[in-house]
Amino acid sequence: MRPGLEKPPTLAILSPYSEQVRRLKAVIDDNQEGFEALSDLSPAIDTNRYCGTVDSFQGNEADVVIVSLVRNNHHGSLRRALGFLSDPRRMNVLLSRAKSCLYVVGSLEFMRSTIESSAGTDAIEEASFLGRFLEALETQRQCGKAVIITPERMVSGK
Q: What is the value of pTM for the model shown?
């Protein structure tokens, strides 16, 4: 724990997708000793779990939230392509769980291309929330309050 803090900040790692949560849990919750930085953070899901679905975390908050929206597929319909991402109410719950810091991990390319492919179709309404989310992200980036890290930058570490 950092000096001067009464208690360590809480961390929740959330995803709307149960398979992602299962995999994150297997890597992080079941192997916490491999993640030294976790010793400075308290699990927000329960006493020893950092990872959970957004539905299981509804009504709760954490100081730091990492959201995995990793989804990249080529389903024909917008709803099938976006899944959870097309439901503004559930996305609102997911994106409003952080008290201090929110990290969103996902494919901007997939989100943008899915929105673009829905233009001029009946499905554009389902993609409107995601479009507003991406616009807000860009606005925050321009203000210096958000950072977009490309996959190339993540791999190179620069």
A: 0.82
